[in-house]
Amino acid sequence: MKLASKIGNRHFSFQSVKEVLAKANAPRSGDDLAGVSARDDIERVAARAVLSQLTLAQLRENPVVPYEQDEITRLVEDNLNEDAFNSVKHLSVGQFREWLLSFESTSEKILAISPGLTPEMAAAVCKLMSNMDLMIAAKKCKVIVKANNTFGLPGRLSSRVQPNHPYDDVDGIMAVAREGLSYGCGDAVLGINPATDSVESTREILTNLHRLRTTHNIPTQHCVLSHITIQMKALEKGCPMDLMFQSLAGTEKANNAFGISVALIDEAWEIMKEKTSNKGPNLMYFETGQGSALSSHANHDADQVTVEARCYGFARKYNPFLVNTVVGFIGPEYLEDGAQITRAGLEDHFMGKILGLPMGCDACFTYHAKMSQNELESLKVQLAAAECSYLMSLPVGDDIMLNYQSTSFHDIPSLRHLLGKRPAPEFEEWLHTMEIWSGDKPGKNFGRAERLL
Amino acid sequence: MSTTSSLIARLRKKLQLDNRTEDGKLPQIKATEKSIPTNSKTETESTTALVGIGHVGTRYATNVVLQFQAELAVAHAAVATELDDDWFEKNNILALRSRVTNHREFLLRPDLGRRLNSESLSVLQQKAKKNIDVQPILADGLSAVATQGSGLVLLNSFIKECEALGLSVGTPVGVKFARVWLEDEIGQTVNARVAAILLGERPGLGTGDGLSAYLVHDPKIGNTDGNRNMMSNIHQRGTTPEHAAKRLARLAQVMIQQGTSGVSLDLTKEKDLAEASGYQYREPQKRNWLVEVHNDIKTN
Questions:
Q1: For position B283, what pLDDT does the model report?
Q2: Which residues of chain A make contact with B36, given a CB cutoff of 8 A?
Q3: How far is the C-alpha of A209 from the C-alpha of A240, rounded, in Å?
Q4: Per the domain annotation, does B97 fall within a domain?
Q5: Domain residue limits at B147
Q6: Which range is least confidently modeled, A9-13, A291-295, A359-363, B274-278?
Q7: Does A337 contact B at CB distance below 8 Å?
Q8: Secondary-structure class of domain A145-452 per CATH
Q9: What pLDDT, in 10s, does the model give residues A113-139?
Q10: Minimum-distance CB partner of B59 among A399, A410, A448
């Protein structure tokens, strides 16, 4: 294998496709921590130059974790759509970038070849794109899914209401959920990360959210983000559940650290098909985020963007209703500052979309990362402009249980107003009926949570 | 005024493009209504989330913006604060350092924060008590503010509670630039049955004062999170340091009794520990408003 390039009079050579992929990445503290990043910006460009001339077929032949060692690689390889792959395999990564950005490629055309793409291909082309490239190409992909409402339509911006509570006080959770709904948030899901991972609290929260949803005929979904095994037990014991959740990682070893496997998610999906309270057909909700594999020493010397793309290769098997990247959640050791978090959010959204997923983003930072509120607001606007399917929403963006800063109840109507976006259609109708929001105007009940008591 | 311009003025008025009063003056702009009742009192007392804050257009009122900025500044300051190099010594705690050399490196290299530097390792080997039940460790973690705040109270209460249960306690040590897993190397070096690290937790908005505690049985390099039990939100609004100390001492005792910790530790029979998992009575939740303003300038 000869992988070499020359920049000016400096010569560079690379040992493997995996090394080229890693060194082509935009700067990232997590790649430095993993010891896989380029030494400097010139080597970075040298790697990108090599990458630009690899063909998609060569990327398929060189997954970052070998077929024999990893079930995610096997899942992707064994389920790849050969017809779709054959239509793009001859393209170089550089040519693939140009096709994605050209007037020629439409949503239909991109989504038609999507089942023939491996995660490594999505990651590779991502590394050759600027932030605005990522936005332009991602915006083309209209991934439309359906549960109790229709999600991902063009010109729409949805949100998850995330009323987390440090000790799962149901009154506190419901108060925040109502507040979010009164600002027009919650059309993606009413989803709680429980503080206590128990079957009882999962059932209790699900039952209360379901009551809120049915009392006011709210066309949305509800979900408790406990471990999937806990949710499976809750379903077995009987309780309403519109979406089943799990965090996914990009390698088999990292998924083991999460206590999951492909077989387990297969089983959970089957139970969900039988027992869900959701009209369907899309039933699952997954979260991902750069850095999770390295944090369990399971990245196999691959860079965190490529490993992130592999999460989407895993997720797409289950036709999920929601997927989102929790982009700045783990901390500065993976994404150091505003520039890195911004870039990663746009990368993940793009990669998820071209791999055919209804991709949202938890645009967020922890308080030990170097990011300001203004930088986060800019990222929200960029994501919404790129037609990111949904963002999170919390009171002032403050998660009082997980201790980080995300999108707020006020940000969602602000972004809709700023960019002319609308909620999911069924939910929009409900907001109109409840006099919370009509067309592009607030109604008399905007911000009045007590109307939902 | 010419006929044309008065016609235009009337038209503008009719189209609501102009809000001038009859005498042609601009009206006084009224302060925007933003305070809106929300939920019920008992419910808003059940969360510290900023609900019921109203809105101006789709954005926050000015006082909310300032509260938010103050809280963010407090959180960032808590992360940026470093322990004074002699702080542990002054408080009669054996002072150690991880392999981290500066604050930025501390944030970016968790691996270095999980190991002692060679000098500290030999200090520990020479000066600390060996073969003990519990090794207490106080550290900065992600908030030196929390450590300097209630860290000493938590450490001393924890030692007292352990001794009350008849457990032998090692020399209290303090570590700058420490991550949780550092308890493995320290516990292993002094041959402790349980290592307990008490450290500043990742600050939330406006709350740089929280401590977390992580306990591990049979501490040794290579343990993972699955081997540990933890308790978070140790501060006046959550679990008080005194209450946390009692529970942590009991946790150490149960670990020694069962000879394990983490996922394989069975707490179902330990009522006093299960009680602290989150379902006991709590005081109503309150958010502290940080911003107060005084303005003594006289206006005519």
A1: 60
A2: 447-448
A3: 9
A4: yes
A5: 80-275
A6: B274-278
A7: no
A8: alpha beta
A9: 999 999 999 999 999 999 999 999 999
A10: A410
